[in-house]
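dumping this here so i dont lose it
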């Protein structure tokens, strides 16, 4: 499934567990209730996708684009949204996970690697962020009402 294009597709409650979806395109797709557990989804495009109550636990989401995605009630426990490196010719560059304007209300992000992720204007109300790594994360204008940040690391985060 590497690089496959599912943009705009209805994948409600689909089991995609354990697949390599590096570089896949799920923009504007309906993945509500889908199982994406343990997937390799580096640099996957999930912008404006409906991931409500989806299971993304243990997913490798390094450098994923989640801008405007609906992740309300999604399970991202132990997921990795840290930056990824990509190579273009001789140039190696960093791809940051972008979760700007995404709805992560009530999402489980406990023990998740969110290092350097961009949460500009993201809704993290009532999100579970216990033990999350938010070091150097960009949380400007993010909504955090009722979020649980117990034991989370926010070293050099931009609030």
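and the seq i came up w/
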């Amino acid at each position: 499934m590497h690089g496959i294009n599912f943009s705009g597709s209805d994948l409600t409650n689909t089991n995609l567990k354990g697949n390599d979806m590096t570089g896949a395109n799920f923009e504007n797709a309906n993945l509500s209730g889908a199982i994406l557990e343990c997937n390799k989804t580096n640099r996957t495009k999930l912008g404006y996708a409906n991931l409500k109550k989806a299971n993304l636990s243990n997913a490798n989401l390094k450098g994923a684009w989640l801008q405007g995605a609906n992740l309300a009630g999604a399970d991202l426990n132990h997921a990795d949204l840290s930056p990824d490196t990509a190579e273009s010719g001789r140039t190696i560059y960093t791809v940051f996970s972008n979760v700007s304007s995404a709805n992560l209300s009530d999402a489980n992000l406990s023990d998740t690697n969110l290092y350097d992720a961009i949460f500009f204007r993201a809704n993290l109300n009532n999100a579970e962020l216990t033990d999350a790594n938010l070091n150097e994360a960009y949380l400007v204008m993010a909504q955090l009402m009722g979020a649980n940040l117990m034991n989370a690391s926010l070293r050099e985060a931009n609030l």
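The first strand starts at residue 84 and ends at 88.
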